[in-house]
Automatic annotation (TrEMBL):
Keyword annotations of the record: Isomerase, tRNA processing
Active site: 44 (nucleophile)
EC number, as in UniProt: 5.4.99.25
Function as written in the Swiss-Prot or TrEMBL entry: Responsible for synthesis of pseudouridine from uracil-55 in the psi GC loop of transfer RNAs.
Protein name in UniProt: tRNA pseudouridine synthase B
Catalytic activity: uridine(55) in tRNA = pseudouridine(55) in tRNA
UniProt cross-references to InterPro entries, sorted A to Z: PsdUridine_synth_cat_dom_sf, PsdUridine_synth_N, PUA-like_sf, PUA_sf, tRNA_psdUridine_synth_fam2_C, tRNA_psdUridine_synth_TruB, TruB_C
Gene of this entry: truB
Native organism: Actinacidiphila epipremni
């Protein structure tokens, strides 16, 4: 089926399990009729849920959207450790069943509290982080021994919704709200390690990226039938503080000239021309608007 190229905008995709984020982008390119498609914030093949996809000029929003707060629902299995910190990897250690059964709610709550707030987190080795230009997961597959440095992340909330004892394991259904760059697999690993029984992730669903959540998400089957985007201007207005400028300011900004902007919010701000068109993303810098990304008419 041939379609006219889609207009610039965002699509909130409900990614299915078993498909990479790049695989989603490949399908979206076919649906949109353009190769100018990208995504914000990679989801592992095992994970499902919100994946933000940008089409045409909206791809310029993606790097800034990737830095926003995220929310997940997940299942953590205590009692077993895997090489990948999730259910897709080989089990490398199993705790004694009585040790798992002895994990008290008090100990569990203390372990979660230790992983909440600003923390230093060592990412999973099967992450896409590059070391000297080579992906960490590639080094793992090649059998290389290495260590990843800890990075600062913030876990805004880490809440246990249910505790389900199993045969030699303890399954926790949790909700996590966190900063960009936080690995939920690493939270599972570190929680299990802190409790002395090991742990890994068995299910992960991202329910929100910034202002975009599952209520506005579409499955790939739905998009194959009826493809539509959230228009560029609406997407930017939903995600960033809005700054409406006059015609003179719009003219200067459209030519890359910084203008006075003493009252901008910290971080990216979406700038709109008098006709409602998105002009740029800017950030405050010494009383001026520094341009992060421009959106010339396309």
């Amino acid at each position: 089926m041939t379609r006219n190229p889609a207009p610039s905008g965002l699509v909130v995709v409900d990614k299915p399990g078993g498909l990479t984020s790049h695989g989603v982008v490949s399908r979206m390119r076919r649906f949109a009729g353009t190769r100018r498609v990208g995504h914000a914030g990679t989801l592992d093949p095992m994970a499902t849920g919100v994946l933000i996809v940008g089409v045409e000029r909206a791809t310029r929003l993606l790097g800034h959207l990737a830095l926003t707060e995220k929310e997940y629902v997940a299942t953590i299995r205590l009692g077993r450790t895997t090489v990948t910190d999730d259910a897709e990897g080989e089990v490398t250690a199993s705790a004694a069943p009585d040790a798992v059964a002895a994990v008290s709610r008090q100990a569990l709550d203390a372990g979660i509290a230790a992983l909440t707030g600003p923390i230093q987190q060592v990412p999973s080795k099967v992450s896409a982080i590059k070391i000297d230009g080579v992906r960490s997961y590639t080094r793992v597959r090649e059998g290389e021994e290495f260590e990843l440095p800890a990075r600062p992340v913030t876990v805004h909330s880490f809440t246990v919704q249910d505790v389900r004892p199993g045969e030699g394991v303890l399954d926790l259904d949790v909700t996590v709200v966190c900063s960009s760059g936080t690995y939920i697999r690493a939270l599972a690993r570190d929680l299990g390690a802190g409790l002395g029984v090991g742990g890994h992730l068995t299910a992960l669903r991202r329910t929100r990226v910034g202002p975009y959540d599952l209520s506005g998400a579409h499955t790939l089957d739905e998009l194959a039938e009826s493809f539509a985007v959230l228009p560029l201007e609406d997407a930017a207005a939903a995600a960033f503080p809005r700054w409406d400028v006059d015609a003179a300011q719009a003219q200067l900004l459209s030519h890359g000239v910084r203008v006075a902007a003493p009252a901008l919010a910290p971080g990216p701000n979406a700038v709109f021309a008098p006709d409602g068109r998105l002009l740029a993303l800017v950030e405050p810098h010494q009383g001026q608007a520094r341009i992060l990304a421009g959106f010339p008419p396309g």
